[in-house]
């Protein structure tokens, strides 16, 4: 395809944020119908590159050319006009508008429509969702949707605008196996239609499966580039991190480990029913399930954010009061939420404060707060989780997605809970830090904590859990010992 | 600037710095008062000026007086928003050797003199006399005050009601004193409600200068110009158009420019060490022979305006 | 959370508070230059020091509620209501003019308790019933004002013992007592905000209420405390006003609500929560007072003063954003910016 | 959300309950004259509220509209009086709308142009507009309005006679409220511009990213609100038959905001309906214009209004909280 002129070409692009070099002299190129994968650790500059492409941010140096024309000033409008559609890591949807409108907005805008045509909007949305292969209430406001559905809406919006280049910044983080498969199918079809795709993901298997070219970023520089066939998971990991990583399963659970948490008959109409399970000290318990199977609602119920109608939760032989996060936390239950931007982080506040907010009570000296101690502890946790931050006083919003996730983790780890519920502990976290987070989970378990991991990432469950519960339509249908589980087996059970 | 520097020497007999502090700046009433103050300045060569807060708030008036004390004026003439709230700051003014004269505040303590255009009860009774004449001495009537906390308004109404009870037994007061917050729109809304609640109402008496205008509008809209009688305190410039149509039948007022002038005259006299005595002529119409009750100086300076003599008062 | 980095000039002026300080100095210098013989007098200094504490204390009350992303529009209602509680105790229960210092303290305590109760009422509406603060306090403010009218029939309560005057008019070691009261409260609030867990949580809650809930912050109790604190600050302001006016009445200080909001915002408090420093509010108060006294000395109309206040507020904001622009971080603009 | 738990339904319920109590206490309460008085009282408040609703939907807040309206009404009256005293009312209205739009553009320049927060800018212009008017334009009340405006105030849409021979009437100004509501509805729900207003209120960053000209939309929103403010102002002056630069309409700002929020618009932006807003206005107007009729003593009036605001906001808030508890 030598005659294919590049759709987008970046040459010598550099971008710095207040002293941090997010992109350093990067050359990047994509042709029509090509799928290129951007790989790299957290904070390596992937999202920044995408923001430049979308015209949301401007490079300090270097040239961006669209269809061979160097752009003097890229704006979201020129990017959209050139046929670039971006699915941002934070979706960038309109929470107050309906699913239909969210999907069709970009398309209508691009067409320069002056009047709002409700029927047409619904038609576009319906057609697009059919392409994605999901059914959704078109008139539901997006804010009422679960994260996964929001992500699907974001994907739909990009598809609807008939783009020539679709950029997906970690589009699969909140999707389960089934939707991921569907998405990969869509990408293949797009390629066939001559649409170019830039794909960012930390799930290496997907990366290798869907893309023909891989570009690896490290610390804002391109460190490797080539056809996907030339990489495998190991070599990719090495390029990204500069070292080899090997994940082993969890350390075996001590035979006599006491029961720590006992959940009996927990029910909430429309969400989960008659949930029973036990968690032993030192055990890591995985919960897998499809979208909307009730895992999140269950996790929230354990932490008191959802009030179950029946059942009880017993920790260390004592009943945990239901429906009150404060008392659940006091009893020793911690919860890392799945949507870190709205539920997890205080974006404008400093990184330190984001960690410290959970530990205020423990550092009280009478009416005063031992600020030094609090900060030292927070810094300690930031260091232990290797949060890549130039300045712990900087607002947490300046961190990359993966580093933000570690900040939320650090907050809860600092509280030393008895049971920690992790809803997507490594959502948007790169392989290197993922392994580290897994090591942390193992470490916590070794100290006698009970850990519950909810994840759509089956390898992650296999790597971390002693036992895996399978949830279908609000019920626990299976309880598999981790050692006996395989990825294929789990996937089959979920699909059935 | 020149004038103030000159006054810094301030020998006996002036020129003096005299600040007139009014309830609120920029309204018709006090703009008219300012004319009197400026006339006084022009006539006597004193540095007399008028200030007032941008919003009707006793605390802002107090702060303004505080600043006047700090800048060292020789006398303050004040029309208090709320006499009680000003006692401490006026006390401080007097301690600083500043002469204080007030207007519309017969109960004010920390002043040399208070000037009243008339006895409030008498004025109220006059309004009632007009109202009763118009109503033929019988029927329901309602009264309006700017605020329930305004002393003068309530004294007028007290005087009016007393006059009615003594002389017109066939008239009947209905409802509470309606509060209008010195706002024409509020007076209008309140009048509408009164008309709805008492369809057979025959008379209304207003106190704030905007009251009768609001009442007049409500009356006009209902086409009740003939059936109802509306009297109250107001200015021709505010109520004129309703007097013309007959929606308002009579207004009474005193000329604020004269009051402003007289306040400044009294302040200057006190500064010069002169004493005010009963029967004295303060040089302005209605204040030719004042009566004295303690510190309170009373004139007979009210004006009654109806459709006949409206043209004589162009303000 | 830790001490600011070494104060160099450039760095220093990067802070909104430092810029505000500069503006304050400029205003002061301007007024001093225009009316040196009147503005630069000891008498004027004392006069100003007596004037601003009453609304400055109200600005502190607004500040603490704004930090949570809320607002308290009922402060003036609370202030008057509490002043009337105190004044009724002094005049109806106690022997009025002859009441001793014990009665005075008792009446002050009752006023503070009233402020706390009013704040608690607001807090319950906002924290437990979920009313938007702006409407909850608008409504409750009307109720508090209404109660003040109902207690008194709308007239002023007078006839206090001489000791009442001390709080608003007295001096201690050469300093006006109201100034000292304000200083102590401002320092206390600053301390609470920067050095206690409560203060930290208030700011975190303001930054993201949902995340605060997920971080197991005791949101309801936190909000209750914030509005109780606001109510009690308002009560103190009410007592100062009562002392300054030597009377208590339902409609004193009506214009202070907006003024207090204006001052808090001018002082750099983010009205959407999460950021604000007491020092900024103090600087804003002083700037406003210099301006207003200075303009009074110059016999500038009070309407012009209003005009200048509005212009100043916008000017300060323009200066602040210009600075952000230079750092070229549109994505990192503070939360309120997106509104 | 079922219709039962909607703000609109709850506010309508409160209104209904109030009317039932009113009718029980005073047989004359439910009558055409009462209705006319209330409709008339709602005109200016309603137009201002519609403007504030649009700003709230766009994710901002505007506390300067009443101040803007007063400047517009006064400047217009002065202009008409000075330049063309015989001008008909439609021309005068156009002038007022233009003045209002220009003042709205001042807000727009600071907000959309310089990117300042809406609350702070409008808090500033609230003082700025009024201060400017009274310092530089004039502070005298004008009670003899130009002919055109006087004619307008006497033009009645509905007129009737009561049993006792007095009249009731509804001025043509009411048609303007209806027109403003219809126009705003069409703009918000039937044009892309309107959808963009909702979009930037939902998430400004997202709007920017998909290429909505955020600044332009914001600017237009403030110009539109300014124009509505100008219209409300001139209608207010015409109906009151006086152009008062210190009009206490200024103090209605919080009531306007309260009406809009009572009607279910969220202060965070992105949501709000015209029906809700009109119901909110109706509740506020109803309550503040019925206390004398209901015989509530003066001293308890502000308590009564305060309680009703709390009730009107409290019910939906409590409802929302309950459904949220059930769902989340
Ligand atoms: N607005 C900003 N202000 C300051 N620094 C920023 C900003 N946005 C990004 N950065 C920094 O730029 C670097 C690159 O960030 P980027 O978001 O591109 O990483 P990423 O590769 O997408 O990581 P992840 O996989 O975690 O999403 C990081 O060090 C990040 O902290
Ligand atoms: N409190 C609740 N009351 C009633 N229904 C609920 C409640 N919470 C969630 N649901 C419903 O229960 C189902 C399970 O939702 P949940 O978010 O728990 O799924 P999930 O398995 O965690 O999915 P995900 O992959 O998004 O995490 C959904 O249909 C959801 O709408
Ligand atoms: Mg990223
Ligand atoms: Mg979920």
TrEMBL record, chain A:
SUPFAM superfamilies found in the cross-reference section: P-loop containing nucleoside triphosphate hydrolases
Tagged with keyword Cell division: no
Keyword Translocase: yes
A matching Pfam family: ABC_tran
Protein name: Sugar ABC transporter ATP-binding protein
Keywords, alphabetical: ATP-binding, Cell membrane, Membrane, Nucleotide-binding, Repeat, Sugar transport, Translocase, Transport
Molecular function per GO: ATP binding; ATP hydrolysis activity
InterPro entries: AAA+_ATPase (IPR003593), ABC_carbohydrate_import_ATPase (IPR050107), ABC_transporter-like_ATP-bd (IPR003439), ABC_transporter-like_CS (IPR017871), P-loop_NTPase (IPR027417)
Ranges for domain ABC transporter: 8-244, 255-496
Gene3D superfamilies: P-loop containing nucleotide triphosphate hydrolases
UniProtKB/TrEMBL annotation, chain C:
UniProt GO MF annotations: transmembrane transporter activity
Recorded superkingdom: Bacteria
Membrane-related topology note: Multi-pass membrane protein
Keyword field: Cell inner membrane, Cell membrane, Membrane, Transmembrane, Transmembrane helix, Transport
One GO CC term, this protein: plasma membrane
Stated name of the protein: ABC transporter permease
Pfam families, A to Z: BPD_transp_2
Subcellular location: Cell membrane
Transmembrane segments: 18-35, 56-89, 101-129, 141-167, 173-194, 222-242, 254-272, 279-297, 303-320
Automatic annotation (TrEMBL), chain D:
Domain of life: Bacteria
Compartmental location: Cell membrane
Transmembrane segments: 39-59, 66-84, 90-112, 119-137, 167-188, 219-243, 249-267, 274-294, 300-318
Keywords: Cell inner membrane, Cell membrane, Membrane, Transmembrane, Transmembrane helix, Transport
Major place of residence: membrane
Topology in membrane: Multi-pass membrane protein
CDD domains documented for this protein: TM_PBP1_transp_AraH_like (cd06579)
GO CC list: plasma membrane
Pfam families: BPD_transp_2
MF (Gene Ontology): transmembrane transporter activity
Record's protein name: ABC transporter permease
Native organism taxonomy: Bacteria, Pseudomonadati, Pseudomonadota, Alphaproteobacteria, Rhodobacterales
